[in-house]
Amino acid sequence: MIDLEESPRRYWLPEHVVACVRLEGAVLLDLKKNRYYGLGLLESATLSPLVANWPGVADGPVSHDRPASREAAKKYVAALSRLELLSATEPLRHVPVAQVTTPLTSIGEELSGGSRPSVAQVATFFWSYRWARNSVRQCSLDEITHAVTMMRIPSERPVPMASDSDLVRLISAFRTLRPLAMTANGECLIHSLALLKFLARYYLFPTWIIGVRFRPWRAHSWVQMQECVLDSTPEKVCEFTPILAV
Q1: Kind of pairing, strands 241-245 and 207-213?
Q2: Could you count the other beta carbons within 10 Å of the beta carbon of residue 101?
Q3: Domain locations in the chain as residue ranges
Q4: How far, in Å, CA of 128 to CA of 144, rounded?
Q5: pLDDT on residue 185
Q6: Which residues of 140-179 are buried (b: 16+ CB within 10 A; e: fewer)?
Q7: pLDDT, tens only, 132-186
Q8: What does pTM read for this prediction?
Q9: What's the rounded mean pLDDT across residues 224-245?
Q10: Is the dihedral of CA 139, 199, 192, 142 positive or negative?
């Protein structure tokens, strides 16, 4: 069995790796390779005391009655190190922490009607969609994360605060235009990034979230402004545990 007193936390998740831990196990997301890795409960529980920035369990304490040997721990560490999912060096920067406001409400899917989108909104929509589509096709999630972060750098000129009604009108315009370029299903990453870019044009900066579901496995992306889900409903996203929030 691993002796926690003799096994200090000497490993780290690198800056390009984010993790989500649940009772079933853990999921690691390599932002540079755009790839998910799944770990079972035993592997996750074994690595937890060894990795300094290993996340806590999202849905309660973990109890495990199968002791992990030192040999097993060494194999887990070696395997993840070969994949560049673990490092012996503390990362220089912190990855985005998946902290999401709950409980959730929605001002997204329930919207209908509203005024007709303006010519400027139409142009902004297609500009945002092209950026999102090209980003997903050509860039890593690490590069996209950096680009989303850069959107929030304050401009030099003063910007008026947008009201809740402004947000509702913009989302309504986006949803009206959405069928011209993409579907609501199957393109959640492009959809959420396009909405982010669209709202950033009007100095609104919600949170971009990627969440994972363990059984059955699935990943999902959505946009949230505080407790409000902007491009989905609470019922659709509540089954996903956030692994990345930017």
Answers
A1: antiparallel
A2: 12
A3: 1-95, 105-245
A4: 14
A5: 67
A6: bbbebbebbeeeeeeeeeeeeeeeeeebbbbbbbbbbbbe
A7: 999 999 999 999 999 999 888 765 555 556 667 788 889 989 988 988 888 766 7
A8: 0.85
A9: 87
A10: positive
> What is the token pair recorded at 245?
């929030």
From residue 8, alpha-carbon distances to 3, 4, 48, 51, 70 in Å are 9, 7, 11, 9, 13
**40 pLDDT above the threshold of 80:** yes
Of 182, 69, 84, which Cα lies nearest the Cα of 130?
A: 182
Strand partners, 142: none
CA of 234: how far to CAs of 37, 60, 224, in Å?
A: 26, 21, 10
Residue type, 212: V
Indicate the residue type of 223: V
Task: Give the pair of three-digit tokens for residue 210.
Answer: 């990627």
Using alpha carbons, select from 135, 128, 139 the residue that is nearest to residue 201.
128
Q: Give the number of C-alpha atoms closer than 13 A to the C-alpha of residue 16, restricted to the C-beta side.
A: 15
